[in-house]
Amino acid sequence: MTAIEAPRSGKVNYNRNKSSGSKFEMFAWLFMRLSGVILIVLIFGHLFVNLMLGEGVHQIDFGFVAGKWASPFWQIWDLLMLWLAMLHGTNGVRTIINDYAEKDGTRMVLKTVLYLATAVIIVLGTLVIFTFDPCVVGSDGVPLPGSFCPAP
To answer: What is the domain-level CATH number for residue 115?
Structure first.
């Protein structure tokens, strides 16, 4: 049977480069704690407004989202939730990749895919939040049924 040494016994070699002097990992650790607390507030606020107020889940449709995103407050709220959730999750997956990918090449490829996917989702999500137009017009220039256009 193989015994696992205690982390502070001095017998465990983590094979980490201590000469870089970078504080990145400390900032990443701190970011995870702070973003987690902020995300709890953002997510529970989001769930409360969407599920508890009004008619609950039955009220959520195109009009509900159009009404919420007409307000800069809700645009910023959802933007913060998107950015923090993506960066928080990306940092967590980055840590897992660093812990479990044994080869440097594998680690680099996995983290590159992770960072690209994160960037695409953040950019697309941000564009959706700020370019959302509730007035959907058909090819004939007439608003489609169910769209929310101001009266002419």
So the answer is: 1.20.1300.10
